[in-house]
Design brief:
The complex is a heterodimer of chains A (about 325) and B (about 350). Chain A contains 12 helices and 14 strands. The radius of gyration of chain A is 20 Å and the shape is globular. The relative contact order of chain B is 0.17. The chains are: A alpha/beta (about 325), B alpha/beta (about 350). Chains A and B meet through helix 3, helix 4 and helix 5 of A and helix 5, helix 6 and helix 11 of B.
């Protein structure tokens, strides 16, 4: 199959278009998704192609349109709700955390809520404290939600398409800083229907000396760090892209750690009760004897993200911090 | 409708109200005997709103409400057994014992849930109506809320979008005059709750929530209008709750005299007197009805007690589901017209 180089943004756009085309129950709703073509142009051209019934501009009212999506999903529509950023999902927290995932349990299985919440999540660039939340650790604590974080164009497309077809509420947490990055993706429908299953991590770089567990924005940083220590320290580092936070692919994670015996978690969220906290617990719980060194973590600092560029850089994860964590863990 | 059918429909209104009253009295007794746990919010005093409004709808119209949900579920056709079993936390309950008193769901009767976060279900109600509009159905959604819910953000967001997109939904504010223990006048700057609708360009009206016939006729009329010309309505149903907000509430925020005054407007005694006056019912008929209903309520307790607890795996089974084709969402109405596009 002839792969194409397309951007993460185009990949998401293709996924939306293919799913809107495939199923008339699918609709896209959010702020400025239609006439303006999306704040980040993810929905470019979709209004023109599918019309205002399927691609719907909502007022600035996240709780309202997230809830409208949940209600519509209860009776069989397949809403895709765009948050302009997941930092804004916090004003819809009751809908995302209390309604979408609970309807199935509370109704004793009578109603499902097949809804997708998607949009950029996590640190971007100089947006200050309110627009930089990495919400995966908040939502991962809520039973009933599935959470995926694509780091490549191919994963962005395949995970989003799978999310639309899933009967559970799914959060597709995109990475704004990766929207313009390119990567190989299979040809579009009808030639190829790209679906990537949840709960499958991807070993994006094979190695033997140390495992970096990562996802989202820190995934490319981890590859960069692995290249640096390969060159400068002759270390052969394995990089595992989780892709799916919930469900988590524990098999792939444990197999990698059992092979390398050293772990750095590079994550875009904050340290306290972050994704790395859970990963660290799982590893020591299942394969305590396999570890040759304490697990290191690279995260955002536990502070509100400052605006000033230099300070922002200081509190966010960077390839340099990952390199330092690798060296520390390897005793260099 | 012939006169016998009309008569039966009238008597059914009384029957349904009385069934809710006796069911809840039984539930209250069981709560006091500590046979059931959690919260129990009683609807006693407000029965005419649920019964009358349900009588004004078609059966496949959607209904969604807050946590004071027993009345709506029973009015919609849920049996007392599955209702009582749910608050006993049994597998035979309407939500398999996983929901509880505040989370009654009944798919076969298009009862889309009791929802326990104040105002949190109002966007869901708008979403149900959105789905009808999207599919070109002439279903109407009835979305009930208490007077306390009109002050929370999700209320505003949902009504704003319902007004903007002309969603086929009737928002019914059951003004029982207290948001938990806080009088409506202490939490709402407007004198009249009905005036809230104007801000959303919504047809708005007040309905006597103690008069079951008026409620039924109002809702039937409004549903008819919405089916012809989809749009939301804002209705304030003036009613009164006799019991506390929940079982732990001694009701110190109101006087005994006030409560007694309102009990004179009791929807059941009022309507019973009307039916007797009209010759549709005798005092003996009523006694027979009451005996029958009390027996059903007592039987529901027995049913609940004898039912099995839900199996532990049930809760994991209903946390996430496998996506499969065996699950069928509520089907689109057969008479749906594809030519009714969603306007926004």
């Amino acid at each position: 199959m002839q792969m194409r180089e397309i951007t993460y943004r185009q990949a998401l756009n293709e996924a939306l278009a293919e799913e809107l085309e495939r199923d008339e129950n699918v609709f896209l709703m959010g702020e400025e998704v239609a006439q303006y073509n999306g704040a980040y142009k993810i929905s470019q051209g979709l209004l023109e192609r599918f019309g205002p019934k399927r691609v719907i501009d909502a007022p600035i009212a996240e709780s309202g349109f997230a809830g409208i999506g949940c209600g519509a999903a209860m009776v069989g529509l397949r809403p895709i709700i765009e948050f302009m950023t997941f930092s804004f999902s916090l004003v819809a927290f009751d809908q995302v955390a209390n309604n979408a995932p609970n309807i199935l349990t509370m109704s004793g299985g009578q109603f499902r809520c097949p809804i997708v919440f998607r949009g950029p999540n996590g640190p971007a660039h100089q947006l200050g404290a309110t627009h930089m939340h990495a919400t995966e650790c908040l939502y991962a604590n809520i039973p009933g939600l599935k959470i995926v974080v694509p780091a490549t164009p191919r994963d962005a497309k395949g995970l989003l398409k799978s999310a639309v077809r899933d009967d559970n509420p799914v959060l597709v947490l995109e990475v704004e800083m990766l929207y313009a990055t390119k990567g190989p993706v299979e040809p579009p429908m009808p030639e190829h229907d790209l679906l990537i299953p949840f709960g499958k991590a991807s070993v994006v770089r094979e190695g033997t000396d140390l495992t970096i567990l990562t996802y989202g924005r820190t995934m490319p940083m981890s590859l960069q760090a692995a290249a640096t220590v390969a060159k400068e320290n002759n270390l052969n580092v394995e990089v595992v892209d989780l892709r799916s936070i919930k469900p988590l692919d524990l098999d792939t994670i444990l197999a990698s750690v059992a092979k390398t015996h050293r772990v750095v978690v590079a994550e875009q969220d904050r340290p306290v009760c972050g994704i790395g906290s859970e990963l660290t617990f799982q590893i020591q719980h299942h394969i305590f004897d396999e570890l040759d060194a304490p697990i290191a973590r690279v995260t955002m600092e536990d502070v509100a993200v400052p605006y000033a560029e230099k300070l922002e850089h200081a509190v966010l994860p960077t390839p340099e911090k990952i390199v330092a964590a690798i060296r520390r863990t390897c005793g260099i | 409708m012939d006169s016998e059918a009309t008569k039966q429909a009238e008597i059914k209104l009384l029957y349904d109200m009385l069934a809710i009253r006796r069911f809840e009295e039984k539930a209250q007794q069981q709560y006091q005997m500590q046979k059931i746990g959690g919260f129990l919010h009683l609807y006693i005093g407000q029965e005419a709103v649920a019964v009358g409004s349900v009588a004004g709808t078609k059966h496949d119209d959607y209904l969604i409400t807050a946590y004071r949900d027993h009345g709506h579920a029973l009015a919609r056709g849920m049996g007392m057994n599955e209702a009582m079993a749910e608050i006993f936390g049994k597998a035979t309950g309407c939500s398999k014992g996983l929901g509880g008193s505040m989370h009654y769901f009944d798919r076969k009767n298009n009862m889309m849930g009791g929802h326990a976060i104040v105002g949190g279900h109002i966007p869901l109600g708008a979403g149900l109506a959105f789905a009808s509009r999207y599919r070109g159905e002439d279903r109407v959604t009835l979305c009930y809320m208490g007077d306390g819910a009109i002050n929370i953000g999700s209320f505003h967001e949902a009504l704003n979008m319902a007004g903007l997109w002309k969603l086929p939904v009737i928002f019914i504010c059951e003004n029982n005059q207290f948001a938990m223990g806080t009088a409506a006048t202490r939490s709402n700057p407007l004198k009249e709750i009905v005036d809230r609708g104007a801000g959303y360009n919504m047809q708005s009206l007040i309905m006597d929530g103690m008069d079951v016939r008026k409620v039924r006729d109002t809702i039937a009329d409004v549903c008819g209008k919405i089916r012809k010309d989809p749009q939301p309505y804002w209705i304030e149903a003036r009613t009164y709750r006799y019991r506390g907000h929940s079982m732990s509430d001694p009701g110190t925020y109101r006087t005994k005299e006030e409560l007694e005054k309102h009990k004179k407007d009791d929807p059941i005694t009022q309507f019973k007197a009307v039916l007797i006056k009209e010759g549709l019912l005798s005092e003996e008929d009523f006694k027979r009805m009451d005996t029958e209903i009390k027996a059903l309520a007592a039987a529901s307790v027995k049913f609940a007690e004898e039912s099995d607890e839900p199996a532990e795996e049930e809760v994991f089974r209903y946390t996430t589901v496998e996506t499969d084709t065996s699950y069928k969402p509520i089907p689109t109405r057969p008479e749906t017209s594809k030519e009714n596009p969603f306007h926004c």
